[in-house]
Specification:
Layout: H1 13-27, E1 33-36, E2 49-52, E3 57-59, H2 66-71, H3 87-95, E4 103-107, E5 110-114, H4 123-140, E6 145-149, H5 154-164, E7 167-172, H6 176-180, H7 186-198, E8 201-204, H8 207-216, E9 224-226, E10 248-253, H9 262-273, E11 279-284, H10 290-299, E12 306-310, H11 315-323, E13 326-329, H12 339-345, E14 350-353, E15 366-368, H13 373-385, H14 387-402, H15 406-421
Parallel strand pairs: 1-2, 6-7, 7-8, 8-9, 10-11, 10-13, 11-12, 13-14, 14-15
Antiparallel strand pairs: 3-5, 4-5
Helix pairs in contact: 1-15, 4-5, 5-7, 9-13, 12-14
Length: about 425
């Protein structure tokens, strides 16, 4: 498997999904080699054997590299293509990681690439380098099938396929249409399309995403399969009593970007506060729309009841859920959405947009159109003021999320593998 991030160094749902899936696969008897651009040494090894692409020496004296090396071009791009982290919090995320230099170490005809594993201006350059390293890995490891997660690793998967002759599965966790709406980055779209065209099979995290892959990328429906994500277990009982504010807390947790619909959350909060001042709204996350959201909160005069936490991960996410009375995911376009499952598992009732893949699998969640701030505000108000309603969603939601298991996702993926290997 090729991936761009793996716990604990994650910036969104991609790394979480990779961990949940690989852990379930290993528990069912598979062996998984998971390649990341930059390993820090503290990655969990209970789910997969982690291979650090930065440790791989690429030997360009081998004939297999000649054609690829001649056609390789490094492209510097601006920060608007950062897929998981917005400009405003990019450096905050990176500064919390191990500082290291970027460069190329030359050893005669051999080269060792030092990856940053970052989402930044040189991202496409690292995508190309990662594909070079994939060629070396493809020749030196034993495996039966290749699996590439998200567009950043599609080229690596294709190179490994061409060298090994093995089948390639690509996993679409999001598309450029989810991240950018109609104002797509053509370079990213082209890589996505290239990956889909060269894959032996495409796995999508929802029917919502599958439809985009078929209609926007021209893929054969027979080649595209939906396998839903599972739910991660969270230990929240020990921090349930830490809530120190008397007001109710309504939480948005995710990247503050166009895709996640943060502006609709702010507008819904404004409407709720017209009827009830004893509510605190929290926007937990960072992204390229963060400054605009701070300005919008000030413009709507709700600053006293609105809080920005910045990017949260790990135990801080658990604590945020423990403090929350309602969780809202107003995404404009969400391929799946793992965070509502985590909230439900933490006994928090959820409101999600109908434009999300997770809405296909959840029954005990209130679903609204992302743009309908009146419906969103009404749903928030109802969960805060009608205890019986909230308790019903908490009780049944907890049971429902416990039935959405990574083991089931892994089994469906394994069945797909076996079908391809016949």
């Amino acid at each position: 498997m090729f991936g761009w991030e793996y716990p604990p160094h994650i910036t969104g749902g991609l790394g979480t999904a990779c961990f949940g899936l690989t852990k379930a696969m290993v528990s069912q008897g598979d062996q998984v080699i998971f390649i990341v651009p930059k390993a820090y040494g503290d990655e969990s090894t209970e789910a997969a054997r982690i291979v650090n692409a930065s440790d791989i020496i690429v030997d360009f004296s081998k004939e297999v590299y000649n054609e690829y090396w001649k056609n390789l071009s490094y492209i510097e791009v601006n920060s608007q293509i950062i897929p998981y982290v917005g400009v405003d919090d990019f450096y905050n995320v990176i500064n919390n990681r191990i500082k290291q230099y970027e460069g190329i170490k030359k050893i005669e005809h051999q080269r060792k690439y030092e990856f940053s594993g970052k989402y930044g201006p040189s991202l496409l350059e690292e995508v190309e380098r990662y594909a070079m390293v994939a060629a070396e890995i493809a020749q030196n490891y034993e495996y039966e099938i290749i699996h590439a997660h998200d567009w950043l690793t599609y080229k690596a998967g294709i190179v490994a396929k061409k060298i090994s002759g093995k089948k390639l599965v690509i996993h679409v966790h999001a598309t450029e249409f989810d991240r950018s709406g109609e104002n797509i980055n053509k370079a990213v779209y082209d890589i996505e399309r290239f990956g889909m065209d060269n894959a032996d099979h495409i796995v999508c995290v929802s029917d919502f995403t599958r439809n985009i892959v078929i209609t926007r990328y021209g893929q054969d429906p027979e080649k595209v399969t939906t396998i839903y994500n599972g739910a991660n277990s969270m230990s929240v009982q020990e921090i349930q009593n830490q809530k120190t504010v008397k007001e109710k807390v309504v939480t948005f947790l995710g990247r503050v970007t166009f895709q996640k619909g943060p502006d609709y959350f702010v507008e819904a909060a404004t409407k709720v506060l017209q009827y009830d001042k004893n509510v605190r709204f929290v926007m937990a996350g960072s992204g390229d729309m963060l400054n605009r959201m701070v300005a919008l909160v000030a413009k709507n005069r709700i600053s006293q009841n609105f809080h920005f936490t910045g990017f949260l991960k790990g135990e801080d996410v658990n604590k945020m859920f423990a403090l929350s009375d309602v969780y809202v995911m107003p995404s404009v376009s969400e391929p799946f959405g793992i965070s509502p499952l985590e909230a439900m598992n933490a006994n928090v009732p959820v409101i999600i947009s109908k434009q999300s893949g997770v809405s296909e699998v959840l029954k005990y969640a209130i679903k609204v159109d992302f743009w309908d701030i009146d419906a969103m505000a009404n749903a928030i108000y109802s969960l805060l003021h009608y205890p019986a309603l909230s308790k019903m969603f908490i009780k049944n939601g907890k049971k429902e999320v416990e039935s959405i298991r990574w083991d089931d996702s892994a089994q469906k993926l394994r069945n797909l593998y076996y079908k391809l290997l016949r």
